[in-house]
Fold this protein.
Amino acid sequence: MQARANARTNRQWQVARLPDSGGLTGGGLKLSADVFGQGEVDVPEPGAGEVLIRACWFSPDPMNHAWVRGMPGKFDPIAIGQPMKGGVAGRVLASNHPDWNEGDGVTGFLEWQDYTVSDGTDRLGAPLQRVPSGVPLESGLATLGMTGLCAWLGLTDIGRPQPGDVVLVSGASGAIGSIAGQIARIAGARAIGIARGRAKCDLIASLGFDAVIDASEGDLAGQIAATAPDGVDVFFDNVGGPMLDAALLNLAHGARVVVCGATAHYDGPTPVTNHLMLAMRGATMAGFFYFDHVARWAEGRRRLGEWLAEGRIREALDIAEGFAAVPDAALAQFEGRAAGRKLVRIAEDPFA
Amino acid sequence: MQARANARTNRQWQVARLPDSGGLTGGGLKLSADVFGQGEVDVPEPGAGEVLIRACWFSPDPMNHAWVRGMPGKFDPIAIGQPMKGGVAGRVLASNHPDWNEGDGVTGFLEWQDYTVSDGTDRLGAPLQRVPSGVPLESGLATLGMTGLCAWLGLTDIGRPQPGDVVLVSGASGAIGSIAGQIARIAGARAIGIARGRAKCDLIASLGFDAVIDASEGDLAGQIAATAPDGVDVFFDNVGGPMLDAALLNLAHGARVVVCGATAHYDGPTPVTNHLMLAMRGATMAGFFYFDHVARWAEGRRRLGEWLAEGRIREALDIAEGFAAVPDAALAQFEGRAAGRKLVRIAEDPFA
């Protein structure tokens, strides 16, 4: 073991400086490339009860921003010079843990470095998740990972689409929105996706959404009204701001608004003025914090895994290649350049 | 009958012109006195199955504004020269209806005139409501009327306070807020009221709220944090805008936000920027439309009636005297001059 590990290089992305931000509410969320600094550390040795993981994929999520800065009661801030953390998919290279074998596919919230050891839990204290045999590692971060589970949790537990409902999804070409719309269709609802620009709209259409609205054409409220003349039963919102305002004006009676994200906030505060429509339409708007719902993850992974295997959910992946691509891939999300699930392949799957 | 009715004068408040407004969402809601015009009509005669009602109290509600302009699918606009409609409490003077007797106390959504006939339903098609014997007519519009029921419905069905919860009420000196806070205390919660200025804050304190925040002292978010250091479990919001933003920053995990009204909108659009806190705190924000919950009214009236009789709910009434006082009483609500339930006494109770 010792010799093999030492022969390896363990590259690491670190926090070089804290991102400028007023936080998730109102202050803007923009990352910049100089937040990321590259370093190199020793390849760790798995001790008793530990596994050595070879990372193959990193997941640059908007939440990385919050993780760097910390969230009171949830995460401590990451100190300058310490490793960046985020979603990682990889393979178990060596295991002293009874639940894990060499070659197992694994995902978790871990340091962004080539090689990591774990006692079976990730850096949030959650159990490492197994990527089922036959499923590509990247699907463990996409459909079976945080973004797929966010789509499933938000739509299933808050949106609760019924057959025949109209489900409107903003940011529909994104990692979460693209899955949410497909789950809505599986539930028998009519899925309408909103995205900005022809390419993203074409992507949504290719995933089977029933209708597509191009936000770059303006008049969001009018476009939604024309596409959903009887109103929107479920609005799955990844955008906030004027998008949310336009959807609020078009809610059907008893509608449910799922507050999943707010990309509109990345550039600063984006107010909403139509919240009183919740009263006018007897509607509900609710958010969920992913890490509060650990108990639901297993069921979500099982359902999503079945739908993926049956071809009822298709993954739209936006893959960046190579360790050096991480900062730009993270920025791409904040700049609207990602279409589908943004992932960075930092190494080939050694067991593929 | 004929002779007696003809001897009376039947004054009527009419819609003289439509109020300026962009509607409930964003356009401002301000009434002006010249929206109201006074007229006089014949005293109607109750036909077969009808009752003749002597109106004693009018209820100038913010919703009157919407009623004048109409609400798609709910109310047609009131035409120029037609009678204003709103909450009315009065006495049955004559009855050809099997359910009603002379002297019965009655409330309903009716024309604002001295004498009205009804077939047992009001102008929204809802049954006329009986004011229980021994209860003053004005309580039929206050605690047992729309405002009391809105407080009960919103708090009970959406807020769902548990013993020990912190319930924050904005516009707490108002018709709805003052009742909502008292219901929260009956449920075993700690009730914090927010109002603007010393007089209104003193009013809240006199109703038994556990703590009072004076909005005129500024730093709403800081004041809420200091008063509810463990967060707000239920926010019953009558204000919207910066008030809602401040409360959103202070939600406890799993909090419920009741969207009851938005007085901040009376002067124009008042944006909210912190809605993403719903996701951070796994919180729910929901509104309700009073007229959708007719099936719950009877239970609400029964409970509120018991609490009123037991002295567990005290009414804060802000009474304007005389038929001519109607326009100013309506404007007072939009200008923040009302403290408690604003009512206009247009005639003495003939059976008091």
